[in-house]
């Protein structure tokens, strides 16, 4: 990215953090087509993809204080969108496991707006996951956050932490397993 683009994005992020809704629209607009294409590939459903992207952008807006003016916003938007897609895929898997038929999925998918129960459940689930991530040992947490949340490559994370790529891979594997176990039993 050019300096001017970085400066403009940094200015937009500062405005967004101050509550500038128009600045937020200008910040995410260039990324929206790419995010929507990614969600469509992940979910294979245009309506679910649109909802996942909308939920991701709403989440970014709600947590706008986490935006970092020194970093490109594209990676953060991508990670958030992927997380929303993963949430939808987990819900599908749970519905399938519980024996809900195909017809029920179509009825659920036809309503594109989340209800208050879904919103509350999503917030509770987010808080629960965030709490479990905070309980991870620091070495596992930092590897997971750098790669899975910040969107860095394993090589970049290894360089930042001064360890090998294999160490990062192992730490991420262990962090995910611990999260999976703790979230299944809590």
TrEMBL record:
The keyword Transcription regulation applies. Belongs to the sigma-70 factor family. ECF subfamily. Transmembrane segments: none annotated. It comes from the Bacteria. This is Sigma-70 family RNA polymerase sigma factor. The keyword Transcription regulation applies. Keywords: DNA-binding, Sigma factor, Transcription, Transcription regulation. Residues 128-179 form the RNA polymerase sigma factor 70 region 4 type domain. Residues 27-93 form the RNA polymerase sigma-70 region domain. InterPro entries: RNA_pol_sigma-70-like (IPR039425), RNA_pol_sigma-70_dom (IPR014284), RNA_pol_sigma70_r2 (IPR007627), RNA_pol_sigma70_r4_t2 (IPR013249), RNA_pol_sigma_r2 (IPR013325), RNA_pol_sigma_r3/r4-like (IPR013324), WH-like_DNA-bd_sf (IPR036388). CDD domains: Sigma70_r4.
């Amino acid at each position: 990215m050019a300096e001017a683009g970085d400066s403009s994005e940094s200015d937009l992020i500062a405005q967004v953090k101050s509550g500038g809704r128009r600045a937020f629209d200008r910040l995410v607009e260039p990324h929206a087509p790419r995010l929507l294409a990614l969600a469509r590939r992940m979910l294979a459903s245009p309506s679910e993809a649109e909802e996942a992207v909308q939920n991701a952008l709403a989440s970014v807006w709600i947590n706008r204080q986490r935006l970092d003016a020194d970093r490109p916003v594209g990676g953060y938007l991508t990670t958030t969108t992927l997380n929303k897609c993963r949430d939808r895929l987990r819900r599908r898997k749970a519905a399938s496991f519980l024996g809900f038929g195909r017809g029920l999925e179509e009825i659920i998918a036809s309503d594109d707006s989340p209800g208050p129960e879904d919103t509350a459940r999503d917030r509770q689930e987010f808080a629960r996951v965030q709490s479990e991530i905070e309980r991870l040992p620091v070495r596992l947490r930092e590897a997971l956050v750098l790669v899975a949340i910040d969107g860095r490559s394993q090589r970049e994370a290894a360089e930042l932490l001064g360890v090998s790529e294999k160490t990062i891979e192992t730490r991420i594997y262990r962090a995910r397993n611990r999260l999976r176990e703790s979230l299944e039993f809590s």
